[in-house]
């Protein structure tokens, strides 16, 4: 085994992620928060060169679909406890608003700039009042797909920024937009998506209230209604090889 000072930073991140997320019963306690802080510090240090990733140039001519996915993913490693990889977004691309059921996450920009819009879901049992109107109006069956939420935060992140963190209760739903050109970010999710274990990815859109509806606030934050939708047709994710240091778990 390599001495620690010769270990790649991505290997150190993977080891720390395993320590942080290997015991779900500890999530939220003092030891977990301490390990999460160590992971956050390591994520703050990493740069694109550590993964042997070079910033992409602004896309020139677009190629015919489906050979030109707006987003690609480099798989680095995955265990039962966490997954880690790099998402690469082309200029103007977005990862639509989606959730991470019961999951923690940490996102660190490698190059370029992203805008992350986060939402927090409120009481899952809350149903929309029958007199609540939207523009355009909803069909009756669509009301069952609504989720009461609040706009948590909107921020822009670059390689000089610290990581963006999500938990099962905070910033768990987010949309990620490439700003001013191509971008890439290192992504950790814990535990990984697993539809068989209740962790499937769901997509949403923000509904606009009718003009005569009053905007509500929850604890001073803007309350919104999100509607679950199918994966948007303009979004899909391709794969590409990871060129960086090998990670062993």
Terminal-residue CA separation: 12 Å
* Bulk shape: globular
Largest sheet: 11 strands, mixed
Number of helices: 2
Uncertain ranges: 60-64
Give the fraction of residues assigned to helices. Answer: 10-25%
Summed up, what is this model?
This is 2-aminoethanethiol (cysteamine) dioxygenase b. The chain is 12% helix and 36% strand. The protein is mainly β.
SSE diagram, text form:
Elements: H1 9-21, H2 30-45, E1 71-78, E2 83-89, E3 94-98, E4 104-121, E5 146-157, E6 164-166, E7 173-190, E8 203-206, E9 217-218, E10 221-229, E11 237-239
Parallel strand pairs: 1-11
Antiparallel strand pairs: 1-2, 2-7, 3-7, 4-5, 4-6, 4-7, 5-10, 8-10, 9-10
Helix pairs in contact: 1-2
Keywords: Iron, Metal-binding, Oxidoreductase
GO molecular function: metal ion binding; oxidoreductase activity, acting on single donors with incorporation of molecular oxygen, incorporation of two atoms of oxygen
Pfam family, one: PCO_ADO
